[in-house]
Prior knowledge:
Layout: H1 5-8, H2 24-51, E1 81-86, H3 93-99, H4 105-115, E2 128-133, E3 141-145, E4 150-157, E5 160-167, E6 171-180, E7 189-192, H5 201-212, E8 228-237, E9 243-255, E10 258-266, E11 272-275, E12 296-298, E13 301-305, E14 312-315, E15 318-321, E16 327-329, E17 334-341, E18 347-352, E19 357-362, E20 364-367, E21 376-377, E22 382-386, E23 396-403, E24 406-408, H6 423-441
Amino acid sequence: xxxxxxxxxxxPDPAAHGDPGSGGPRVRVVGIAAGVVLASVLLVSLIAxxxxxxxPRPPDPPDSHPALTPVPxxxxxxxxxxxxxxxxxxxxxGQVLASAGLGGxxxxxxxxxxxxxxxxxxxxxxxxxxxxxxxxxxTDRVALALDQDRTLVLDRRREGWRTRIDSVSVSIDTLYVGxxxxxxxxxxxxxxxxxxxxxxxNVEIFLKLAQIYAWQVDFFRDIRPGDAFRVMVRREVRxxxxxxxxxxxxxxxxxxxxxxxxxxxxxxxxPEEYYDENGNATRKAFLRAPLKFSPVTSGxxxxxxxxxxxxxxxxxxxxxxxxxxxxxxATGAGVVTRAGRWDxxxxxxxxxxxxxxxxxxxxLRGLARGIHRGARVQQNQVIGxxxxxxxxxxxxxxxxxxxxxxxxxxxxxKLPPGKPIPRSQLANFERRRDRxxxxxxxxxxxxxxxxxxxxxxxxxxxxxxx
Length: 466
């Protein structure tokens, strides 16, 4: 029997007939979509794998971040406590250190460390002591300002106190300063590098000039208006502008027509000295005067009316007016042959300098320590003090200069020149002399200084630049 189409074809698809029990067309659409999605995922996976990279990780939700661990704040360092105190009357070093917590054994350890540099018993009043404590109530640094240039520093270590000396650094410079005398050295009108002078440094320059020319110029009797000077000064200057040291390398003094150059030089076998342009030391056997900057109240005379004896008699010496207690200096080195009272001289000293020269110093208030008969004295050494013992109406010094036992006017006695530079070092001195005096000439004297030039000496006071 022939087959029917139903029998020959595939079994009927329920979905094709819209059987709700079999899903029908909706199931087919969902299946197709799922296939598309699956294919897309596979395609993306293959592309990512072929490129060697991974798909980015989706961000975590806001509440999925790990909790942050708070970082603790470091504890603040203990404050550094600094203090300063001063050794003074009623305030000893021990009391200063005790107030800084260094009493008992601590004080003894600090003293031992200080003794390695200075004697603690000789620390002067006014010395500043600075302490530092980095741990409360435990001082770990002590600093003693020994002077303007040195500080003794003590640092605490496990093994004890370590010490060192801190020195102030200085700069080196050179000044060229001159002056014209109006009435005396102290009131000179200065010129040159005056703006760079430290406070009161002009006074130091005046004193150095008086020392350099003490054998050639009596700065009370010999000075005249119009006299002039100029100096070349090498200085060591501290950071605060104060001067630690100043040395006059060269000087020139114009005095009553005399030109007096002086150059500092240190020989191989001696201390520093000043020499004139010929190489002779300005230091001579005798100073011009036994007192510094004191007026002459009575000169050498063969006939003078005595204020006490009320009669005419010779005055075989020079009287210098000065305040009671003014130091008296030996004008030359020698041996004391008299020391004590002697008639009208009152309290006096006599010095034998050699077989030819002797000097006497009378009306003294007292003798300096160590001055007695037979004592040796050095030039410029303080030997006594001005008074008014003996035949005297007011405090003054009576000074005599004897040659072969006879009083002579010390201002008129011709003395031998100073010790010359050894010949072996003369060439070295001459090179230094020429170099320094040439630089000093660059300062030039002002017109007022021409009053000191000798007649016909036209080079004095002339500016080298002219």
